[in-house]
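Researcher: Before we compare anything, I want clean individual predictions. No alignment, no superposition, just each chain on its own. First chain goes here; please echo the sequence and then give the structure tokens.
Model: Echoing the first chain and its structure:
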Amino acid sequence: MTELWDGFLQALQLIVSFDREVMEIAGRSLWIAATSCTIAMLICLPLGCLIHFRSFPGKRLLISVIQTLYSIPTVLIGLLVFLFISNAGPLGGLGLLFSPAAIIIGQVILISPIMLGLIISALSGVDKMVTETALSLGATRVQAAIVSVREVRYAIVTALIMGFGRAISEIGIALIVGGNIAGYSRTITTAISLETQRGNLELAIALGIILVFIALVINIGLHWLQRK
């Protein structure tokens, strides 16, 4: 309990004093997670609409596979991305290994099934009369799909929150393809792992509290926007 209390006090001190290293790590973690979520949403929203509004063989199987990928281990994704972007991999010439870009690629792969599944599930709950009414009034299929998306905009924000929470809290991908390089690819989760290994538990606890605080502030902000 003493270590937890000391960690909490140290976290407050680091936040209030705007510690340069901690703010840098926190800012990088936020930037990486936000970029990953943005890219994943740009992919998953149109793809989710395409899957939902189209009928094709194996559709239910595809949705089941997407839902199964919710729980895919982060270290497995990290390993797969590592194999592709390492010097011996097909994308090795791009020089992405041990960089923030590599972490973003891994996180996009990690959170896309979650966001895609939630979007498809939300669209499935829209009354078919909404789409049929839009079509009967002369709307194109794309316009009708936009109407349905507007009906489930709150659920889409929830998918975004889930994706962000998953991205900012993961560690396997950041360690394997990010390299935990100080001042370049170190995130809050990898910093917590490093400080724990060093035996600096108070700083590790402080960083953990800061991570929870950041996630809480982001979630409150997104919920506020949702209400607006």
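Researcher: Okay. Second chain, same rules.
Model: Second chain and its structure:
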Amino acid sequence: MHYKLMGTELIYLERTMRAKVEELSRFFPCVLVTGARQVGKSTLLKEMMPEGMRYISLDDYLEADRARKDPIGFLEQYGEPLCIDEVQYAPELFRAIKMRVDANRRPGMYWLTGSQRFHLMSGVSESLAGRIGIVELFSLSRQESCGLGSGVPAFDPERVSDMVCSGTLCNINDLYTGIWRGGYPQLAQQTALPRDAFFDAYVQTYVERDVQALSQVGNRSAFVRLMRSAALRTGQQLVYSDLARDAEVSPKTAAAWVSILETSGIVTLLEPYHVNSTKRLAKTPKLYFMDTGLCSWLAGWQNPDMMMQSTYAGAILETWVFGQLMRRFANAGIRPRISYFRNLDGGEVDFLLEQNGRIYPMEVKRSSSPSSADLKWARSIPPGQALLMPGIVFCTAERFVPMADGACGFPISAL
């Protein structure tokens, strides 16, 4: 849950992830919630902590130092059940946790948070395999921002008309205002908080703590320049030489720094699709920021109206759709198989969702009147073992739009 100011009264913003964390805690000794800094990991677990569970944050330098030097003694001091925040600052704890879990295995012994993606976090897979349930939390989804976070299901293309959430429908101006502000809980809770001040402090803290924990970046100004360059290229194919030129670093350094952004949950790299993954038509991933507020701030947009009227409007809209889809799956504990398609002629399908032996083409269009022509490149997708299904056009209409051959237009604000 998160608090939101309504006049002088605080109301709760329920996080959809709560149900999944509760489920995992019934089966696993450890639960790990990963995600970028300040997306709400700590608040979520603090609101959920059962009676008797203690909380400790390794954002505290002294506590982190104690945990690194004497992990066994650290765990003995605090006992169980225990919630350990920002566990990536003391990876030595993972082996000690494994020993305690193996000695007395019970569900819900340890709740952990970490500002690094779980599949890239050193120590988790080696030490706690089979003992830990892992989920990734993003900044607030559209439903959560509207106070509708409870019971939101994963996006299901087989029931796409049922996925429309009428409580989130809005016009294009309000949509871009939400995209511009983003989903960080503190901005949602404090609507009077200046966006520029929040993101300026956010990036400074991120570079000083998370980036330095992952790699000793000597030139912090160059790293921020690379972040700004990446933000201007969200939704585009990743070209390291372009980022390197803007940041005034080598392409090798640019690649290493993009890896840091990915590890810390700031960006996601979307791989291209091909029936033979070793012989892709397009071999370059696309880069997407996971919060459009941070992305648009880094890109320099001072208000949503100017952004909406610019050539950047399509890329940031596509970025927002990708982020909302990822939230719908991640909040249900699902890692979806999403890719993009581009042929040698430059024809592209924004997203391909693969599940249950089927492929669902998805296009993002800044139009309130979607048509089957928007999905024309889906017919270029090479045949494979998966069955190609009718496509979905995410559009700015304020209602669900049935189209020919089973395709449909889905209102973006309802994601």
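Researcher: What stands out in the second chain?
Model: Residues 17-136 form a domain with the Rossmann fold fold (CATH 3.40.50.300). Additionally, The chain has two domains: 17-136, 142-414.
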